[in-house]
Write a structure and sequence with these properties.
13 helices; Ribosomal Protein L25, Chain P; 3 domains; RNA-binding; 7-stranded mixed β-sheet; single chain; Glutamyl-tRNA Synthetase, domain 3; 562 residues
Length: 562
Amino acid sequence: MSEKPSNKNQSDFIREIIKADLSSGKHDSSITRFPPEPNGYLHLGHAKSICLNFGIANENESTGARCHLRFDDTNPSKEETEYVESIKKDIKWLGFDWGKHLYFASDNFEQLYEWAVYLINKNIAYVDDLNADEIREYRGSLTEPGKDSPHRNRSADENLKLFTQMREGLFNDGDKVLRAKIDMSHPNINMRDPVIYRIIKAHHHKTGDKWCIYPSYDFAHGQCDSIESITHSLCTLEFEQHRPLYEWFIDKLPVQTKPRQIEFSKLQPTYTLLSKRKLIEMVNDNYVDGWDDPRMSTLSGLRRRGFPPQSLITFCKSVGITKFTGVTDIAVLEHAVREQLNKEALRKMVVLDPIKLTITNWPKKGQVEFMNAINNPEDNESGKRQIPLDGEVYIEREDFMENPPKKYHRLSPGNEVRLRYSYCIRCDEIIKDDDGNVIELLCSYDPETLGKNPEGRKVRAAIHWVSVSDSIGAEVRLYDRTFTAEDPSGVDDWRECFNHEALNVLTGCKLESSLRDASTDQRFQFERKGYFCLDSKDSSKEKLVFNRTIALRDTWAKINKS
RNA sequence: AACCCCGUGGUGUAAUUGGUAACACAACUGAUUUUGGUUCAGUCAUUCAAGGUUCGAGUCCUUGCGGGGUUGCCA
């Protein structure tokens, strides 16, 4: 049905390197991997990495390229199965497929342990009794070299004995660690005898209680890459200074293939938070409804909000891959979403904030006339539908103004507008309640204006409407940007710039009745208002709930503001 | 301050690898429009700075300036 997402003819420095490696014969094909840690939900930033790694595999499919999904589960104290499942779901939703290549770093614990023993026997790894604070002290600082641990020169035999005892559980968390013996005065701090195994007596989601020692990221990642024959290990910039260590292990260990690590810059969209820690806080502190709240930058949140997966792929493509750490205007994403939705969304008429309008010269009360409405002007296949008009309708409260400003084209006393797909009407009278609020408009229609413009005068606006008799009620949730600061990560506490108006729940909305049969996989444009979808969690036959994915561009709002 | 990385319109990416600075978003004009949507046309940078190499430099060299990363038994 749909073809595999890939960015053919896209180029960036990583794709250039891979292309060169293929044409030089260094590799017959590329094998990449997406390596999430199962300790949280995937977000927009992960989408960039997914599009890169899986995209490269799809683009080079003819050479046998593939992309693995590998869960980096080396720290049992933070990881859970719930996250594994959500991560798989999100990748599939984006349209990517790891086939049979699903792996866990924990699959390799035995091999990694053997390699640790190998380093001990080579006398380039040792068990250290220093505690975490002492190790930090001994490491030195950015400007000063570190100094050797007093336990650095234990014999291989003693190290082996202690490491075995670590595995057997004879020590407590933090009592001992295994460290690589490299150089305590190395200018790169990662090379100052990094910890490669630590004791963590916690239940692991895959291996249960089999292990109480776990390899660190540095000791596990590159070796897992090698075990899986990964050719290009793509990661973000903060791992750049880990590369010498990555290569040190690959060099010292009897591994069969030598993967190459290449770093690229993280995605940093404006008005968006992508820090896993802060996203967890938003959930735990009940600022949002959960990981899939439509205000979240998680893929599950964006999905529930109504973002089409293709729009995220388009977005990632336009962002590109470089080593430059810049910010991406969230408007680029919003544009990709509108572009996609404009093509596929079915048009509907929905009045979000209704006010009643009666056509006083309608021939007979209750007489119904059907209007032809286009389902999607961007897609001829989508056809037309019939909408009843019977003289009593709801229109949008903001489409009427008693005292309109200069360039206001909509309804006002004595002024004429078109009811979309229907007749032109003129406002003759306003009915107000005791507090002076407008509660009803009395208008007259011109029977000569169906399908043609009136002669001798210009009607400048067409407004949407729903017949009172044809309307159904629903709750509509209006979403806006989640943060008020352009860079929420630069604010001391994200709570200070959390946009409390990012969710606006409207309850008395009036929808055209065809929306009764809406399904969760459909996307709609509520004409002149924005793109909407059914809320996958809270909507039911009895109580319809729609989410606004994104508003339509609104030139009038801009004019009005200035 | 030590080490590493990066500097091309307002923003993000391109530039056949030394040969006319291109694309997208944003913004602003204007046209079209029964969605103030869509669409269409137009405006908006001599590539951080200064030197150098060259017939020719965004691309190569030097120095300076600016931004980011790094001092977890996280990944």
